[in-house]
Amino acid sequence: MRGLILALAAGLMFGFGLTVSSMINPAKVLAFLDVAGGWDPSLALVMAAAVPVAAAGFALGRRRQAPLAAPAFQPPAARAIDGRLVAGAALFGIGWGLVGYCPGPALAALGVAMADPKGADLVGAPLFILAMLIGMATVAIIDRRVRK
What we know:
The structure is a single chain. By secondary structure, the protein is mainly α. The chain has helices spanning 2-20, 26-33, 42-63, 83-99, 103-115, 124-147. The chain starts with a helix and ends with a helix.
């Protein structure tokens, strides 16, 4: 139960940060990605603030024997940069560049839309999440067939 409460708190804090920084606004994200046009560098400040916070979190984590809600740390099993990783990263980047959403901001935007539907993105975020879920299911099906 403690793990679920910590996960909920972390998710709410993450969603709040995405909302405050306007990363749930696809137009703002696309303007940040448009370095050859009307570039909006404000999200670079968000990233510049996030890097030291994450670095501090990793530094504190290295001092602990185990995370707060698990018996041990679980580093990634795969360390190689393979075709599957590159393809996934490319699809992620293409999706982000096309619509201005990635999974976290899309979920946060959906939450904002549900809480206050006036002026919220009632179409883009749900469509992105649906497409993301279909993509995840497709990859799972392909993985099962390839492993047989």
